[in-house]
Amino acid sequence: LNAENIEKYAQFVVNRVQEHAVPHFDVSGVARLIEHSSRLVENQQRLTSRFSEIADLVTEAAYCSKQAGHKFVTGDDVLRAVHEHRQRSNMIEDRLQDLYEDGTIHLDVAGEVVGQINGLAVVDMGDYSFGRPSRLTARISLGRAEFGNVEQVAQMSGRIHSKGFQILIGYLMGKYGVDATLPIRVSIAFEQTYQDVDGDSASSTELYALLSALSGVPIKQGFAVTGSVDQQGHVQAIGGATRKIEGFFEVCKAKGLTGDQAVLIPASNVGNLVLRQEVVDAVKQGQFNVYAIETVEQGIEILTGVPAGDIDGKGNYPTGSINARVVETLEEMTVRLRGTSGTRAPKD
Fold first, then answer.
1. Is residue 206 a contact partner of residue 296, using CB atoms and an 8 Å limit?
2. Measured by CB atoms within 10 angstroms of the end CB, which terminus of the chain is less buried, N or C?
3. What is the Rg, in whole angstroms, of the alpha carbon atoms belonging to the chain?
4. Contact at 8 Å (CB) between 306 and 320?
5. How many other C-beta atoms lie within 10 A of the C-beta of residue 267?
6. DSSP string over 175-232
7. Which of the pair, 327 or 6, is modelled with greater confidence?
8. What angle do the packed helices 296-304 and 203-215 form, to 10 degrees?
9. For 276-298, what is each residue's pLDDT tens digit?
10. Could you tell me if 176 and 136 are in contact, meaning their C-beta atoms sit under 8 angstroms apart?
11. What is the C-alpha to C-alpha distance for residues 332 and 335, in angstroms, rounded to an integer?
12. How big, in percent rounded to 5, are the helix, strand and coil portions of the chain?
């Protein structure tokens, strides 16, 4: 997004005004049009080439301006036009929102729970899309490196989601299974979802739920997470970050904003955020938060309030850290699996 492109958009608005004899746009009106254009492509540095949508917005904003008795089309007029377009298109979103509010769809936005976390997805209706949060749970039991993805078993998992789950397993094996087979059986599921699941944007979410189950440390339910993960534990960019944040915000707003609710996104997605003004204002006022992270360690610390813990020269993690607790659980389960009273010998 540069001065030349902004000027072209401004000229486009002027031409549209001349074509349809609608009021001129003031500076704030043009600014809101440009902002909406960036929102359509989810990139702060780019403008959409879907000119027909911008043209429709120009016409609708001009109508809103006329109703308000404004001499020029203002930024508020553009925002009202965007809002009214959303109201005409979001019947399914509203119905889902009702289900969250009355508890039909169970989603916690406060408190702490072990092995449970809020994931985020985007529902695409063609000309309209919106974010939808969902509850994800992880359970563990004795086993021999058995990793179960309920969606995959039920044939509801797409190829990319299945790949993301395998990468998650690769991270766990490399982190905790170098010296011995992991003595666990894992089951991970998206609760109350009845359509196919695809994409790898939930792989970090699944990993956090599993780390919580393994460590016994609860996750703050006021948080929701999106982001893919690689085998080294880096959190990677995903699509739909803006819609996902807004989707969780809507549920939190309905249940009551506390100031402790937030969304974790990959740091590499920050440039994709073009949030609605309502969400921006809530963040500015401390009612809602967005955290940009780069690694799984950063994420789990925010979600639990407990340090992840760095390994020392002897191969040990700080007592009480997430990693130390995971190792302790694995050692205890190894003993139970072997039916002996010994433990894995510590590293020198």
1. no
2. C
3. 24
4. yes
5. 17
6. HH-SSS---EEEEEEETT--S-B-SSTTHHHHHHHHHHHHHTPPEETTEEE--EE-TT
7. 327
8. 60
9. 999 999 999 999 999 999 999 99
10. no
11. 5
12. 50, 20, 35
201, 204, 228, 321: the active-site residue: 201
**SS3 of residue 159 by DSSP:** helix
Q: What is the pLDDT of residues 63-107, one digit of tens each?
A: 999 999 999 999 999 999 999 988 888 888 999 999 999 999 999
CA atoms within 13 A on the CB side of 156: 13
Judge whether 244 counts as a catalytic residue.
Answer: yes
Reading the block at residue 321, the tokens are 């850290």
Contacts of 129 (CB under 8 A, 6+ apart): 122, 123, 240, 243
Q: Which segments of 143-267 does DSSP mark as H helices, in order?
A: 150-153, 159-176, 203-215, 241-255
Structure tokens at 29: 């009106």
Question: Active site includes 201?
Answer: yes
Model's pTM, two decimal places? 0.88
